[in-house]
Fold these 2 entries.
Entry 1:
Amino acid sequence: MNGGLPRLRVERARLRVVELPLVSPFTTSFGTQTVRRALLVEVEGDGVAGVGECVAGIDPAYSSETCAGALSTLRDHILPSVLGAPPADVAGHARSWEWVRGHHMAKAATEMALLDQAGHATGQSVSQILGGVRSRIGCGVSIGIQPSLAATLTAIEGYLAAGYQRIKLKCKPGYDVELAQAVRQRFPGTPLMLDANSAYSLQDVDQLRALDEFDLTMIEQPLAHDDLIDHATLQAQIETSICLDESVESLADLRAAIALGSGRILNIKAGRVGGLLPAAQLHDTCGEAGWPVWCGGMLETGIGRAANLALASLPGFTLPGDTSASDRYFEQDLLEQPFELAADGTLPVPTGPGLGIQVEQRRLDEATVHLEELSPK
Ligand code: OSB
Ligand code: MG
């Protein structure tokens, strides 16, 4: 981590809710999404602006946070801690909201905006600030539960043709072994994994062990969203590596997961763990434990996507992430230049100051469904 971030003020903030239709419905074991509603945090102070994206969903299904809940927590608790406060660096501002329990996605959005602001003040990219070492990120794609097996195979074919380096399929009980078998048969050498979003219990161990046959690179979050003990029991009974997502919301969770052997791989999402700086800490701890990591996704707009690419430029992100190109999600992203996949299945890490992106103002205004201005009390 770069030590020298400037001390800046936050004199004004804006909370903006945008809605972007998804190019196709996204179905997981917890539900179907057809539109991405995202909450943006815009800050301004000392003549420099920054923007961050909150990844909370419309419903509290992936985690307990929601877009509406984050809006009120940001308005009433998190942003008042920094608005009008003495100049501070990003970590200093983050300490001022440490008293707020939970609400990691709301905190992460504010921290992202402050890192963007700091980067604009110094000319550094967020990747540089975090200590990134990579200029391009290997990308996988996360494919939702499809209406049929045939539709799944067709979707995979398209993404592989575009260059994606690995396929992740959402699964659930009854949509798992046959799925893996059919996909493996058709695409024998493709790096393949499943994500259950907590749809199983230890009673399903036979079903989960049956997946060992299909050479999966991992199975993501098979068991309960808040469990570490059962994941450890399961990991001891299956060969496929478990990757944790929902169960690790903090460094304390990660330490427990490593000590217990609850898995072998971590999906890191800055929103889930309270920011990019905490995410970088989790990355370091995984490195010490020998756990490879990859950058997860939350169907972000180009703003959050830029932050994900910066995070994924850290050295321990050795596996392709869910950092897919803009057109995998949206007809029109919010950026002047959407993220486009190169033929080798990579996306570039932005190199400009801060997040290194340019938001297209007209598109942003079109997508905005709610806007509020905040100033110091
Ligand atoms: O579990 O990783 C997940 C999307 C929304 C909520 C949870 C998850 C996901 C994805 C999509 O898998 C990742 C992406 O492409 O952004
Ligand atoms: Mg997941």
Entry 2:
Amino acid sequence: MTAVQPKHTAASVGDTFDSLSPATDEVVGTYPVHTDADVQAAVERAREAARWWASLGFDGRAERLRKWKGVITRRLAQLCQVVRDETGKPIADAQLESVLAIEHIAWAGKHARKILGRQKRSAGLLMSNQAATVEYQPLGVVGVIGPWNYPVFTPLGSIAYALAAGNAVVFKPSEYTPGVGKWLVDAFADAVPEAPVLQLITGFGETGAALTKSGVNKIAFTGSTATGKKIMAAAADTLTPVIIEAGGKDPVLVDSDADLDAAADATVWGAFSNSGQTCIGVERVYVHEKVHDEFVAKVIAKTEGVRAGSDAGAKYGPVTMPSQLAVIRRHIADAIERGGKALVGGVDAVGDRYAQPTVLVDVPEDSEAVQEETFGPTVTIAKVRDMDEAVEKANNTKYGLGSTVFSKARGMELASRLNTGMTSINAPLSFAGIASLPFGGVGDSGFGRIHGPEGLREFARPKAIARQRFTAPIALTTFARKEKTDALVAKLITVMHGKR
Ligand code: NAD
């Protein structure tokens, strides 16, 4: 079947481009395509702003971040409408991601001093005449490159933490959601009018590439694995450090003692909400053979009534990126050709704008539908003889972003055996809403962490300081050192570490 390509893609017209609604193809905004020179100028402005922002200290920044979160909260309905216009997702979903993002701004501002402020360290016995401290200083300017699927929650996971750590930020949102990016940056400027601490640049991949090589002190990228690799290669030229938050193929494990209703509900919501366009969305399920059939029946029952569309009754919206429709179709077709069965949906469930839910069983583990990120409203369910097999199969992909375990007795054990950056037990995706937990992946899902204390430290450089408190009775770092001293040191170290 030939894919009908809809028009709803960001369109470039000279030095501007249009942002189009994926639900209607209507133009919802026009934005500049920023050039290398524009990006460079923004980074220079940011350098100046970063000095002022850093000089405010933790308390001055926390106060301004509080103001920003207040502005966003009071104008929440407006923000949700912009998200809906550019992504087509239901207003309630836009609200959920924005609420979680507000929580992150609040957490980052409130905790930055405690986590990044000066901390004492033990100097050890040999160096006991020294006072040791470490403090986490801002990097300077951070470039944030974002995706379109959660255009509020995802970039703010980097931006809020980078700002709280004392950096200025130059933000390049996806070409599919420049309006959401502009809205967030404008709200910041209303709360912090003194200096361009958070700036917007818009455009396509070339603008993102210009930011990568602009000399910023770190790039925080969220998007596909393929783009992440390009960014890392380009950043090597200037030795610019990068955080890569990339794709996933997240599994759910369902144990024989699991609450099957809860597991089925989490699977259906995790796989189909936001049209499956969730980096930590559910793509695969491994179910203990004792409960497999009952679980599958529950998933099918719960999928009834879950429908894509743009009317009030629809549970999720369109596929935002037209090129993804072909990927979703290809994964389903390949699964079926290789012996899989679609218990709900199938290739015809994928239209030219909306994709209806698809539930696949009996799909070979080495097929694309199990190994590659589908990023659509599909899920594969496989029967396993025990949870060891479930863990082995869940770990057998190149990705390792999130995962979920449903088990009454073995939740913690199974969670720690999963080779992913995050796991939630007995509820879907809960780690993403807990601001104190680090977020990030392993393998092709990327590296580095946003959120939580680890997320704050990503955007700071540890500065170690050793201050001599008094002259040491045994001087070690001098040419005037005596043989007697060396003998004493040898004796001391033997007493301290030489025990068998
Ligand atoms: P994408 O890689 O196509 O684009 C992401 C951003 O990178 C866009 O702003 C784009 O303009 C920019 N870009 C493209 N080429 C570039 C280049 N050469 N140099 C610099 N920037 C460049 O990704 P997408 O389609 O917008 O997002 C979907 C992907 O994001 C999925 O794979 C999803 O899993 C992933 N994602 C991951 C997370 C996470 O936290 N791990 C969160 C959300 C989305």
